[in-house]
Amino acid sequence: MNIEKDDLTRPEVHALLAEHLRNMYELSPPESVHALDLDELRAPDITFWTIWDGKELLGCGALKELNSKHGEVKSMRTPLAHRGKGVGRAMLAHIVKEAQSRSYERLSLETGAEPAFVPARKLYESFGFTYCRPFADYVDDPNSVFMTLELTR
């Protein structure tokens, strides 16, 4: 697996992100979907990565800087065909390492509360993320779960 910073121009990445957005809207009501589209992922405070096996796209993830000490995990996605292969774990490890290299003290995320999100929550728990109150601009939402990780260098 090769993780690389991505410029969001490749058709494979567009297709994966379109699948991600479609799936989020299938699982959650529109007001509870916090997934970012291509334009939003191009914001200067977001770094986006993809994971490849040769020319095959295995997944993606992003890190949004909330402030100089706090980052947010965004756009974690592994296509169904590649789940269970460690792609999400590799991407999350990469994001955590990057957050540490930026001297962030905290890394947080929002994910869904529905049963379909249990595997994602278990992945985050395995890295030490704990459940927390809404952060940044998020508000309490029965369809959202908020998690955070205190970082050490």
Could you explain how this protein is built, in words?
The chain has helices at residues 11-27, 38-41, 87-101, 118-126, and strands at 2-5, 46-53, 56-67, 70-77, 106-112, 130-131, 144-150. A seven-stranded mixed beta sheet has the order 1-2-3-4-5-7-6, with helices on both faces. By secondary structure, it is of the alpha+beta class. The two termini are 25 Å apart. It is globular. The model has no long low-confidence stretch (mean pLDDT 96). It has four helices and seven strands, in the order βααβββαβαββ.
- Major sheet characteristics: 7 strands, mixed
Report the order of strands and helices.
EHHEEEHEHEE
Give the structural class.
Answer: alpha+beta
- By DSSP, the count of extended strands is 7
Strand order of the largest sheet: 1-2-3-4-5-7-6
Tell the overall outline. Answer: globular
Write down the CATH class.
Answer: Alpha Beta
Number of helices: 4
